[in-house]
Structures are given as structure tokens and as C-alpha cells.
Amino acid sequence: MDMNQIIDAVRGLDGSLVITPEAGSNFPELSWGDAYFYHAPDGRMPERTQPYGTIITKDYPDDTTSALDTPGRFRVNIHVGRDAADSLVTASEDPADEDVLHRHPLYGASGWVCVIDPGERTAQTVLALLRQAHEDARTRAERRASRS
């Protein structure tokens, strides 16, 4: 599964907003080429909400264990919650292994999981987790709106 297939699947979700910073955009250069997934039915990037999923295409200064500076590699990161992360990730794998569900190298304790280059073993799981994360983000947004 390639990065564009994942982005297209997320774009197809009701109320989805996919931000893909490019060269020359107002986003920091480090984010160019990556993708950020939000529930935003109004089409505007939320100001006080983190994305529920991302695709990262390179190592970041504090996040190098996935070896993403290898050309063509990418990592899908998904917020699933602590309980789901505990049940999904059972083995401690090499954090650079492809097509394996891992705890996120920095945010695993906060309920984030990730997959480097999803393939035959994880592609359907990644899409299902992104759909659920999108639905969870929608539910949180509706709850916040009903309190205001």
C-alpha cells in the first residue's frame, strides 16, 4: 500500500481534512511531504486539535528510530488510545521493521501506534484504525461543540 492510497482512503471519510504541506507553503519545511489527518467538516484546520493520524516521510530530529531517511519509506501514525494500543501491540519488534504494528517511538505511551510501509500484513488494519480514529475525533468534536 502506498502513501497516496492511504491519503485517498482518509479523504473519503465524511468530514475529513487531509493537510499535505508542500514546498513553498506556509508550513515548516520539515513537514513538507508529510500528511496530517483531521476531522474538520468545515474544511478548516482545527487550531486547538491535534491530528488523529499522520504520515511521516523522513526522520525528525528527535525521532530517528524508524529509519525514515531511506528513500521511499514512510510511517503511518494513528491515535488509537492507550487501551487499544496495549491490545494491538504485543511484541517488542525492531522499531525499523516494515509492515508491523509498533508503538509510536515517541507517543506510544499516549496511545499512538504506527506502521512503517504498510503491506500485506497490516494494510487493512491501518485503514480500519484510521477509520476508527476519524470516528473518535468526530465524537470528540461533537462533544466539545455541545458544551459550548
Structure description:
- The chain is an alpha+beta fold and 148 residues long.
- The chain has a single domain, classed as Aspartate Aminotransferase, domain 1 (Alpha-Beta Complex).
- Helix content is 28%, strand content 18%.
- It has 3 helices and 6 strands, in the order H-E-E-E-E-H-E-E-H.
- Strands 1-2-3-4-6-5 form a 6-stranded antiparallel sheet.
- The longest helix is centred in the C-terminal third of the chain and has 25 residues.
- The radius of gyration is 15 Å and the shape is globular.
- The relative contact order is 0.17.
- CATH class equals Alpha Beta
Radius of gyration (Å): 15 Å
Number of domains: 1
Structural class: alpha+beta
Numbering strands along the chain, what is their spatial order in the largest sheet? 1-2-3-4-6-5
Give the fraction of residues assigned to helices: 25-40%
Largest sheet entry: 6 strands, antiparallel
CATH fold topology: Aspartate Aminotransferase, domain 1
List unreliable stretches of 5+ residues. none
Number of strands: 6
Characteristic terms for this protein:
148 residues, alpha+beta, six-stranded antiparallel sheet, 3 helices, 18% strand, DUF6194, DUF6194 domain-containing protein
In summary, what is this structure?
This protein is α+β, with helices and mostly antiparallel strands and 148 residues long. Helix content is 28%, strand content 18%. The protein has helices at 3-11, 82-88, 123-147, and strands at 16-19, 35-39, 53-56, 75-79, 101-103, 112-116.
